[in-house]
Structures are given as structure tokens and as C-alpha cells.
Amino acid sequence: MKITLREIKDVASSYKAYDDGLNYFKEGKVEKIHLRQDEDYIEMMSCVHGDTGDYQTRVELYNEKLAWCECNCLPSFQEEGACKHVEAMLLKYYYEVMPDIRRSIKGERYSQNALTYYEDQVIKEQDLELGEDEKINAHIKLIDEGAGSFFLGLSVGANKFYVVKDLYEFAEHMLQGNRVVYGKNLDFIHDLSVFDEATKPIIQFIVDKTQEYLDILRQVGMYRGFTKADRKTLPLGPKAFDEFFDLVKGQNIEVENGKEIREVLFAEGNPRFEFKIEGEGDYYELSTSLAEYEPIAFSRYKYILLKDRLLRLDKSFGNDVFPLLKYMYEARNVHGNKQLDFSETLIKRFILSSLAKIEKHVPVVMNEDIKTAITPEHVHVKTFLDLDGEGNIIGDIQFQYKGFIFNPYKKLNESETRQLEQIARDTPNEYRVGNILKYYNFRTKNGGLHLSEEEDIYAFVRTGINELMELGEVHVTERLRHINLVKSPVGSIGLRIENNMLKVELKDVNMPLEEMAAILNAYKMKNKYYRLRDGSFLDIAGGTTIGDLANIVDGLGMKGSDLAEGEASLPKYRALYLDQVLRQSEGIEVSRDKYFKQIIRDVKNVEDADYEVPKSLKANLRTYQKTGYRWLRTMAAYGFGGILADDMGLGKTLQMIALILAEKEENEALSQNQLASQVDDKKQDDAKEAEACNKSQGSLECLCKPSLVICPTSLVLNWQTELARFAPSLRVLVIMGTVLERKTILEQIVGYDVVITSYELLKRDVDSYEEIQFRYCIADEAQYIKNANTLSARALKLLKSEVRFALTGTPIENSLAELWSIFDFIMPEYLFGYAEFRRHYEMPIVKSQDEVVTARLKKLIAPFVMRRLKKDVLKELPDKTETVIYNTMEEEQQKLYTAHLALAKKEMEEELKAKGVGASHIKMLALLTRLRQLCCHPSMYLQDYTETSGKLEQCMEIVKDSIEAGHKILLFSQFTTMLDILSNRLYSEGIEHFMLTGSTKAEERMRLVNEFNTSDIPVFLISLKAGGTGLNLTGADVVIHYDPWWNLSSQNQATDRAYRIGQKNKVQVFQMITKNSIEEKIKELQDKKIGLTESVLQEGEAFISKMSEEEIKALFSKQ
Structural domains in the chain? Predict the structure, then answer.
């Protein structure tokens, strides 16, 4: 099936697309074309190596006509027609593939194709055989007819130039691609590709501007009067002249002005010359050393045409010097004067008003006598200001020179004008006064001043009056003087604890409290001021206390109206945030009662708290663990919840066990003291009384409420083991078994100190907990409740307890909503409802990177989050080395990936177009998973794939090298199918290993962990989700992350299975990344997102927010 060169040209999106495509084809940038065809249809596909990457092209021909073309480059989505990559493939098909197809088709209808063949041969000869030396050049002539009127003429040729007698016909030939004979030595097809590179922009400019000019002539009805002589040149209006200058800047262009023709350099810059002032008495002359010049003024730029240069002036020179040159040019051309003549008064005024501006660019030469004689008189300024009945500022102004007084905004009579002309005025100071009045938006009417806009009045009262006083006298009436600027609306705040509530009292108030809500709203709207009902201005922009009050109200979830009575009651836990905010306030005095101070002191100085570690604890706590224990005790003492967010492996479980044990021991001691007191008071020694006391002791013990631990199923046995190991005196009840068995166990809860259940069982048994009151409710691995809408999270938040704690090494994994959900468990409403939290915190931080809101959230959560990192507290822990290892795909793997990336890009764009960003994330994740699987091993996605994977081969090298060096390895992947592939490969290599996935039962998990730590088995394959938490695998010292994902914290958790307390060896962590793939982009996003969380917590993990359409498209673009 054939296509003609004419058709290939016609489908191109532009001349440039065809020309670039031809160059690509000539340079061999088109790979082999793959064809699929039948009788009437042919499909061709290829890869074109572009300037910035490789592009996949596809074309469909139906009945010998182009039916469809596509390419994954950006222009193909933005422009109609074929891009340069498709053009290159079509030309390769035409010149290299189609001749073979023609020979292979029996019964070719040569007679029908003969004419097309010869026509195409002509085009082919012109396009492909025209040598570099035979390229067509252009010669431009600029015709200057004066008064800023310019025309363009054109000559073309190779060895000899021919004048183009009709530019508009020439442009039409260019548009049609016509062959035109100019003379014996020149005929060519009019196509941009035949011109040399330097000429192409000029030719395109002429084609475009001729069409624009013809359109204008048709619109105004002047096309019929367009003569043959007119068609020889192209008029250049201001805009076209500026564009032409940009095209030829730096080149010499022939300029004709009627008198002569000369070569002129087009350049940017200012001419170098000087002005000279000469004279004495009442006659002075201003001249210039610039001999021949022509000033040219267009709306955008100003130019000076010299004998051999056309200079585009810079803006400042054009404003300050050009007008003077223009007036001198007109004086010379109209009146024949080579200089400007001035009287003594006028030369003084000229020098005083203009000399400073001119001398910034051009030297002005004059003798010292002239400089000495020209000294301005000083202007005395008087401004009179008043307030009218509507609250507007009105006034009058006077300028005084010795005995002459005038209002600059009133029209002077003839006598006054003559008198003023004899004065060497203080122009700079007059301008300063006028500029001040103009800046503050004063209007003038009949010489009077008027200022009516409230915002302008505020600004003028705040700073404008002082500015006028620096230049002269300002007289203000009593009415205006009463407009005060209130700097601080509140002098002090009182804080006290009363009835277990926090009381906040506003003192020394300088405004009506009922206006507080409106004032704070004005602050949030970023207004500079608020006008009080008495007419005074509250200075929001210049005052600090308004900002402090706004931070308090916003941070505490209050409304401005809550302070209308001068006092507000808040939950006690708000004291910690409020103290932080007020300590940073410079404008508000704060008084605190002793109970308030006690809370702040205890929370801030937990290291010095008097809480002793229980003696029966079977462990020696490290210093940081003692601090964590005391922090837990302090929080519990005040009824606050908290998040123990220590790095993985720092012993969060042990610190919590110490808390529960200490409470039990103190309760038992209290019970014994109470019992002894009862015995002493009653003085009863008989056995019956003793027995009664024993019963009383038992009943007192029963009054001690149990604590509930909720954890992942895989950690239930861990908790039971740790409690038995470190606190054997605690009575522990584990909830497990069938529904009936669990119900029976729960009925026996009385007398137990600790109850352990899993998130999975809790959501099933939650009704059974309805009547049970716990002392502590402890959520371990609290990231399990990061989604507030899950059944686990809802069930957990229904539990009744006096104090709630959360344990997690990753309080934020992906979004701030997770942090809110955990706080909603430990202290409901502390971070408000989610809708309010999202509006006031999550959206400003994630979408706008609002630093003020970020700082506010950090202050809110800081007292209730205890977080320490290994690098800060475990100085004795061996080093951890993290290395990113890049691998390249195998050849067949790379081809599959490239093809599926292009397909995924197309599918994603269609999805975005059809559904928008919000409804496209499921599709996006599915496509990303497909690409990630291809990076890991294509057989995960394509069952018939039989080749290997670049990453697998590199991974096996690391594994074998590590084993030979005596190391033990944890190998993590998110895909269990990839673990199966790795397992099969390890078996084939004779390498023993264990494997743990989500289907591994809890008992089997413990067995595998213990056996790995104590045996010589060198490799443990682990599913990231199933084995990322709750495992102690310090027997390993090499960690391999086979595949990356957004959640870097999950990888860190997995790494800390090996890098934790008990590790004696240095740990080497490898993160495997496939080069030029989606994995590299995931790594970039990890690095980018981590900064947001670090701004909320001291140390945190990356979280991914909802992506914009641009981010999604970038994700699927070729690396």
C-alpha cells in the first residue's frame, strides 16, 4: 500500500514538523518499522530517537489514505496533524519500505501510479538531493521613509540574487509549495526547507506578516486599492518592527532612506555622547555632540538610528533622555536649529527638573558659573487637615516661596503664573509632597484635598501624616486628632486551673469585647486594621497581640465570640499549648496560678520527676527508657493521653510494662496501708476480724482496674511473653479462641492486671467490652488505626478507660489524617473533628506548605508525643549503612517496560480526561503496580515471560556475596509472588532459607524467628506488610529491600527488625532501584515528601498527599 510525498507533507502539523522529520530520517534516527497489513489496511509502528528521548509512533493507512497517526510526544497532543517523529517514520516508510512492498504485490497497477511516481520524484530530488551549497539565501532591505515609517523588501537567490517583485505572491507560493522560476539561474519549490538556516526565520516572518496585513486590508475595505507597487514591500508597524528587530539583532541590514543606502548594525544599547550648556545673562544654549541621528518611538520600545547602527534603547534611557533628543531632532529638522535656546528662568527650571535624570545616562557639560547661578529657593509647605461629618479626611495645602503663597492644586491667574515663572522652584520637594498625597489616594477638587476610603484613611493616619511633617508643617483639628491607633487590644491574660478545667481570663482590655469576633476575623482576612465603633483604628498590621490572640483562638478550637464575656473555660489539656503560645508573645502579660504552673513544670521536666522504677521489674531500664517511663507516669497523673513514638527497637513495650507494674505496686501498697489503718483503729485481734480484713484486702485489690493492650494478631504472643519475662507478678489474661470461649474469658476479667487482645478480635467482641472500665487502654502499633473509618479504629474508640496511650514508631506514614486518628483515640476532640482539622491544618500544610499552621500543629502535639531516635539515644548501637543500588533491565525486559509505559501513559490520560483527578487514583495505582512488577520481574505480570530480570540477577549477586562473607540476610518485598520467584531461585542455587508472608500463622512466625536467630540458615524472605512489625531478627546484619514504595516508613520499620537493641554487628541496608523506571520516580517522591512530616514531628516518615494532574502525568512520563 502506497502513500505519496505530497500526502506526507500535507498531514504534517507544520512546515517545521516536516523539515525536522526529514532531518531525523536522513540522520538514521528511525528504527525498524513493524508492519501489520491486509488487503485494504496497513498499520506501522516504530521508535524514533528524538533530541530529548525515544518516542513511540504509530500510523494507520486505510484504502491508501492516512486514517490515524499518533506519537507519545507532547506536540502530538497539542497540535493538529503529524508531529516530526511521525513524519520521520512516514519518510522512512516511503523511501525504504514502500518500494519493497510495491515489488512484492502482484499485478501492480503501474499505469495508474506512473504520474504520481514522477511527481514524487521531482519533490524527492528537490528535498533530498539539494546540497548544502545550493541552499537559497535571502537579502533583506529596510526602507526608512521617515516619521517612524518603515518597509521591508526582499531578494532571494543561491549564487545570484533576484528581487521579489510581489512579496504577497511570494508568501502565497510558500504556503502552496509552488515551483517558481525567477530567471536562468534560479527556480525552486517554495518550501521553508530549501532556505539556509539563517534565512528561515526571516522568510517565515514575511509569510506571517503578509497574511496579517492582507487580512487588515480586507477588514477595512482597502484591498481593492492595493497596487502593484504596494505589493513590492511589506509595511512594518510598531509591533512588527519590534519582532523584526528581534529576528535580526546582531546582524548588519541594508537600510535605504531615499538619499543613500548603507549597512546598519541592529543592536541593543544606548548611544554615547554628551550634552553641553553654554551662555550667560538671559540667554543659554543646549547642544549635543550626537551629529546625525533619527529618534524612532514605538509604543513598546524606543530606538535611535545612527549612521551605522540602529540601537534599541533601554527603558530608563528611553524615559529620561529620548524625549530631549526627540525635541532637539524636531527643532533641527523643522527650524534648522542645532541647539535649544533658553532664557535664564527657563534654563534654571530645566536644570532643576531634568538634570538629575539626564546625568544618570549622559554627561552634561557646563561651566561652574552656570552651576553656581542656578540655586533653587526652598519651598515652605503647610498642610491643613480636618475630619468631616462622614468620617472622611479633608484638607488644604500651601506652597510658599518668600512672599508668594499658592495652592498647587488651584488654577493660577495670569499674574500669579508670571510671578511663579520667575521663581527657581524647589521641584524635588514639591514632587515629594505630591507623591505622598498621590500614594495615599487623596483626590483634589477645587484645590481641596479629599480622602474617603477607610483603608486609605487608616494608612494615612498610621504613617502619612508623619511623612508630611518631615517636609513641612501639618495642622490637624481636634476632630481628626481623636482618631486613635490602638496598638494592643488586650494588656494581659490570666490562667488558672479550677474544678479540673482551664480558665482563661482577658484583662486590661482596650476595646469592646463584643467586637472580638469581628476583629479576629479581620486578622484572618489579613486586613491591616479594624475600625472600631468609636471611629478609632485597631492596628492589626503593626500590633502583635492580635496575632497572639488569633493563634490562641485557632489553636484551641475556639471562636472569637467565646471571649465576648472576657473569660472562657477549656479542657485542662489545653494548658500545655496555651503556655507555649503565650511564652512567645511579646505584647501580652500573663499571670498563672500555682496549679497551672505545676502542670507545666511537671510535663516539661519529666526527667526530674519523683517516679521510681518498680523494683520488681526484671530489667534495667536505660536512661532514655526511664525518661519515657516518667513521662508516661506524668501524663497518666494528669489524666492526659499520649503517643510513645520512639524509633523502632527502642523498647516501647518495656516502658509501658513498667508503667502498669508501678501502678499495681502502688495500689497494693495503698491497700496495705488502708488495711493496717483499719486494724489499728478498731483494735480487733480475733481471727474473725482478721479474716474480714483479708476479705477487705481482696476487695481493695479488685478495685484496681485492669489495663487493656490491643495489638496486631502477630504480636499477642509477644506481649504475653514480654509481660511474663519483665513483670511476672502481673496477672495477664489473653483473649483468644472461639466467640464463646472469648466471651467466657472476658467474664473472668476481675482480678487480672493486664488484658491482651488483637485489633481483629476487638472489632468482633466490642459489645462485650461495653460495661468494662479499664485503667489504661494501650494501642500498640497504632498505625493500625490510622484510618479513622475502619472497624478497628471505631471499636477501639468505644472502649472505656481513664487514660489512653498509643505506641507506634510511625505516627505519620502517609498523611496527617493518620495523626488525627491516633489523637482522636488518645484524647478525643483534642485535634477537633476531622472536618475542622482537615480545613484548618491538613489542607494548609499539605497543599500550601503553610509554615505558620505547621508550627501551630507542632506546638499542639509536642507535649503529648514522646519520640526518640536510635541515633540520638543508642550511642552504643553499631553503625547502619544504607546504600541505594541501581540496576538496569535486561534487553527483553526493557522493551516490554517501554511498551507498557507508553500504554499506561495513554490509559492514564484517558482516565484523567474522563473522570478527573479525584476519581482516577485507583486506576493510577493499578497502572503503577503493573510497571513495578515489570521492574521486579516481568513474569509477575506476563505469565509467558521466560527471560530473566536485571534486578533478580543483581539481587542474587548480593545474596551470594553476603553469604560468602558470613552474613545473614533479611530480604523484603511487597509482592508475595516475587518472594515465590526468589524462593525458587534460591532453591535452584542450593541456598537454604525461610519465608514469612501474611498467611503464616502467629505460632509459626515465632518459631521461624527463633530458629533464624539461632541457626545457620542465611536468608529470610519476608513480606513487607506481614513482617514489617513485631519481629526481632537481630541475627541478621544485611537487609535488602527488593522493591520500593511510597511509604518509606514501612521500609524503615522492616529494617529495624535487624537494627534494634541486641544487634552487635554493623547493619548493611540495600535499597534496589531499577534505573530509568517508575522506581526512580518513587524514590524521588520519597525524598520530596519526607520534608513535610519532619516539619510536624522532630523526625518522621514520608507521606503522600493527593497528587495533582501534573504530578500524575509526570509520573508516567518517560524517565
Answer: 5-129 (no CATH), 134-256 (no CATH), 269-373 (no CATH), 380-481 (3.30.70), 485-603 (no CATH), 644-873 (3.40.50.10810), 880-1115 (3.40.50.300)
